Amino acid sequence: MEPILLDGRKRAAEINERLLERSRIIIEAGFPVPVLATILVGDDHSSRVYVKMKARACKRAGINSRIIEMPATVQTKDVLSLIGELNRDEAVSGILLQHPVPRHIEEAACFNLICPEKDVDGVSDVSFARTAMDQPGFRSSTPLGIIKLLKSYSLPMAGKHTVILGRSPILGKPLAMLMLNENATVTVCHSKTENIRELAGQADILCVGIGRPKLVDSSWIKPGAVVVDAGYNGGNIGDTDWEELLPLTSACTPVPGGVGPMTIVTLIEQTIESAERKYSSGSGIPPR
Q1: Which domains does the chain have, with CATH numbers?
Q2: Residue 5, SS3?
Q3: Which residues does the annotation mark as catalytic?
Q4: Which residues pair with 272 in a beta bridge?
Q5: Neighbour tally for 196: CB within 10 Å
Q6: Which residue from 139, 120, 131, 140 is spatially nearest to 273, judged by alpha carbons?
């Protein structure tokens, strides 16, 4: 069977058409245009690029983007104060603290101050707990984007051995929980894992997010595996040599154009869902 190129751009565009309709319903019901507020601390070039991409995605989906820039010299208390203001701002449906922040900022404290109803990137402890327990709430955008991408191609996860390379709190760990919720059997590998290459070679679904360009080549996978590359390195390079891998897989994501677009559209979708939840009672807006 010919391998499938998992086209995240195409799938994200299809989802966006539905998001436009959902935002239109909110606005026509007389409610404010949903707003995604993004906090950008410092002047990291890649972060600026991502924030601009997210702002453009907001526009495509018919919602507003509010970008708040803070200098790298700010302290944790300043970021916490801003998050508190955004929590109280009735116009804001979603709050995103762009990762990474400068090292002196207590990132976890900032994430955990975001109220769960506006945590549309699923980064707080509360959101992670709801993910792990398969309870209603917002999910980490990249892991949920991966699940949506696999489902859009009708790729089964139940009963499959999923191996995740990387245990970050915004990718590897929540992805493991989401895969378990889909009834996959999950192995999480990290820097202390022994025989990591052998474990990767046992995967029916191999998900990679470790920040090492083109680490995973054909010697890491078994024929017919599904390979998902959630890595992003300088020069638009992923953590896999996906062009080499593609002929050996049953399905594979490109970099760029695979997981990235799904991450962004998932973030926007959860922002719209936040507004729908807030305004749905008695308004004619379908509850989510």
Answers
A1: 30-115 (3.40.50.10860), 141-260 (3.40.50.720)
A2: strand
A3: 54, 98, 121
A4: none
A5: 17
A6: 120
- Which tens digit of pLDDT belongs to each residue from 76-120? 999 999 999 999 999 999 999 999 999 999 999 999 999 999 999
Q: pLDDT (tens digit, 9 = 90+) per residue, 151-188?
A: 999 999 999 999 999 999 999 999 999 999 999 999 99
Q: Distance between CA atoms of 23 and 37, rounded to whole angstroms?
A: 16
**Tokens encoding 83:** 């998050």
Q: Are 186 and 159 in contact (CB under 8 A)?
A: no
Strands 161-165 and 205-208 turn out to be parallel
pTM: 0.96
Q: Which two tokens stand for residue 71?
A: 């200098």
Structure tokens at 62: 């018919």
Q: Are 63 and 239 in contact (CB under 8 A)?
A: no
**Residue closest to 99 by CA, chosen among 84, 88, 114:** 114
Q: Is 159 left (phi over 0), alpha (psi -120 to 50) or beta?
A: left
